[in-house]
Design goal:
binds zinc ion, Zincin-like, 2 domains
Amino acid sequence: MLAERAYLELYPEARLGEYSFSLEYSGKFSGYNANIRKKPGKIHFSLSRKWERIDEDIKIGIMQTLLNRLMKTKVTTRSIELYEIFLKKVHIAIPKVKTDAILEESYNYVNELYLNGIIEKPNLQWGSRSMRTLGRYDYGTDTITISTIFRNAEKTLLNYVMYHEVLHKKHKFLTKGARNFHHTKDFLKDEARFGDIEKINKDISRLVRRAGFNDLF
Ligand SMILES: [Zn+2]
């Protein structure tokens, strides 16, 4: 069975029968998202429906990535490498269905001004109220999510956070050993082209405090 194979390839020394494995394809995920749950003696994988049609080796790769996270291990395998290559390319195949006028304006602005318009528009959405980060880029759904605290903020602050997230789509990540690096030297060099970053970060901290999010971020 696929989940068991993923486990045994990742941990060849593991005792057989320590866990029973299950795998379900669930409609509750969008894009290529997935999660893992552990109960005593049991490990359960949920993968989005889109995963059903994906090559087995890549599927093993995402399951092993989830296992590394769950078990706090850093084992690398060929399947994990394949999955990471897949993750860097999958945005091409993802339908762009989510957008918002304010976010689109900001995306267009930074894409034209700093990136010569080369980054294909991802899905764009505002975060939920409980979102604990300023912004994020999700590879599996090709989605940039921006915290609602920027909805009425000075445009420069929104543009800066948007630029940061668009750069994640541009640079993807570098893998060294079992670690992925997202804020690489090249990333930071690109980001610095926005200018005035120190002041912007101060303004963002003030905005975050004013929003009453002292404990967050
Ligand atoms: Zn980042």
